[in-house]
């Protein structure tokens, strides 16, 4: 059974589209959408277990330039 998380991303002004394009190429990120509201992007991360999800987020998401803040929400049922 895989682990899924929703990553809510706040981007710097003018960087949203660049961030979406970069995240869309990352293995393990199954969906990236620009959204309205308090966050600019929502990405869906899926991996084998919680540790893999955490590693993907810290090594592939947090390092993307233009990301100001993230909030990760683990899915509790699918």
N-to-C terminal Cα separation, in Å?
10 Å
Strand content: 35-45%
Annotation field: number of helices: 2
Name given to the CATH architecture: 2-Layer Sandwich
Global outline: globular
Beta strand count: 4
- The sequence of SSEs as H and E is EHEEHE
Low-confidence stretches: none
CATH topology: Alpha-Beta Plaits
- Superfamily (CATH H level) name: Lrp/AsnC effector binding domain/regulation of amino acid metabolism (RAM) domain
Strand order of the largest sheet: 2-3-1-4
Rg from C-alpha positions? 12 Å
Helix coverage percent: 25-40%
Structure characterization notes:
The protein is α+β, with helices and mostly antiparallel strands and 78 residues long. It has a single domain, classed as Lrp/AsnC effector binding domain/regulation of amino acid metabolism (RAM) domain (Alpha-Beta Plaits), CATH 3.30.70. Helix content is 26%, strand content 38%. It is built from two helices and four strands. A four-stranded antiparallel β-sheet has the order 2-3-1-4. The chain is globular, with a radius of gyration of 12 Å. The model has no long low-confidence stretch (mean pLDDT 96).
Write a short abstract of this structure.
This protein has two helices and four strands; from the N terminus they run E-H-E-E-H-E. By secondary structure, it is α+β, with helices and mostly antiparallel strands.
